[in-house]
Amino acid sequence: MRAWRVARPGRAGTARFELHTEPVPVPGPGELLVRVLACGVCRTDLHVLEGDLPVHRAGVVPGHEVVGEVAGLGSGVADFAEGDRVGVAWLRGTCGHCKYCRAGEENLCPDSVYTGWDADGGYADYTTVPAPYAHRLPAGYSDAELAPLLCAGIIGYRALRRAWLPARGRLGIYGFGASAHLATQVALAQGATVHVLTRSAEARRLALELGAASAGGAADEPPEPLDSAILFAPAGELVLPALAALDRGGTLAVAGIHLTDIPSLNYQRHLFQERQLRSVTANTREDARDFLAFAAEHRLQVVTSPYALEDADKALADLAADRVNGAAVLIPAKR
Questions:
Q1: Mean pLDDT for each consecutive 10-residue tract of the chain (335 residues)?
Q2: Which UniProt keywords apply (predicted)?
Q3: Alpha-carbon distances, residue 260 vs 66, 238, 246, 256 (angstroms)
Q4: pTM summary value
């Protein structure tokens, strides 16, 4: 099979990202072997490639928005069959017994492991996943449309929860890529007014097409105070204008796994009057199930840009340069 490996993380011109030919992996006990039908290209993959995230597995295969079909079963698997369509997401395993797991907060498990970071992911023809962490997928979507739902969609959904958006509230979205364009649709379906702030003119056009009330520049002031905001762009300098745009008691959720440094805050301008700043850390399987159920009930418009598996390096370069509208998705050719 073909598989892309991060031979050496680094910035542009220093990273080594290589396409290999290697044996198909063998599923271990309790695992599924999955033939990859589509794999979304997430900004987290870019952070793995560029070294923003520390190396957890040397030479890892990135990719954690995997849509595939079960091609083999490890011992002890009883609830899946060969040929089933499944999703493989970021969260790959947790301990199940720490205080966070027992409290339903498995995303905070100290022993959690992740697809495409701790274990090989979906930038390949095949991957594996522990059966309890594989997801059933909603009908009515193509493989390419489903792929971004498995991280961009799930994280956006959790970010909405963390932002404490009130009923029919005013939501600001900072940055408008794969996750934001899905979270916007969820918020709109829940009756919110959405204002998008992003540097890309093409993304602003898409936001308006999807139903946003306004779309401005990344550091612009929205046309009205916000009840809640979500920062999707990995740009710490945007924390300040996003906090300043909040109404009294408003909440800003930072959705990314990586963020550049935040400049100094002014307490009176940015935090006083009970404004809150919250982070978002991965997701739980409950988040995934709830979001995928939502997607089954509400047909989301998933904007994708397809790339051949052989062009994964180009897809990541385009993502880094903000040349992707919606979500980039790798499509392995049938072999």
A1: 96 89 98 98 95 96 98 97 98 98 98 98 98 97 98 97 97 96 97 97 95 96 98 96 98 95 95 97 97 97 96 95 91 80
A2: Metal-binding, NAD, Oxidoreductase, Zinc
A3: 27, 10, 21, 10
A4: 0.93
Quick check: helix, strand or coil at residue 123? coil
Structure tokens at 206: 């898409």
Q: Where are the alpha helices (DSSP H) in the chain?
A: 43-50, 99-102, 143-148, 154-162, 178-189, 201-210, 239-244, 285-297, 312-320
Q: Look-up: residue for tokens 């809150």?
A: 276
Q: Are residues 249 and 318 both part of a single domain?
A: no
The secondary structure of residue 326, as a DSSP letter, is S
- Same domain for 143 and 289: yes
Residue 84's closest CA among 139, 136, 29, 28? 136
CB 62 within 8 A of CB 101: no
Sequential DSSP letters for 265-295: PPIIIIITTT-EEEE-----HHHHHHHHHHH
40 and 141 housed in the same domain: yes
- Shared-domain flag, residues 93 and 175: no
Between the alpha carbon of residue 156 and those of residues 74, 233, 242, 271, the distances in Å are 32, 12, 17, 23
Q: Is residue 163 within 8 Å of residue 191, measured between CB atoms?
A: no
Q: Report pLDDT for 176.
A: 95
Strands of the 226-231 sheet, one edge to the other: 214-216, 193-197, 170-174, 226-231, 246-254, 276-279
- Which CATH number do you get for residue 97? 3.90.180.10
* pLDDT for position 335: 59
The alpha carbon torsion through 240, 326, 146, 285 (nearest 10 deg) reads -10
What was the pLDDT predicted at 253? 98
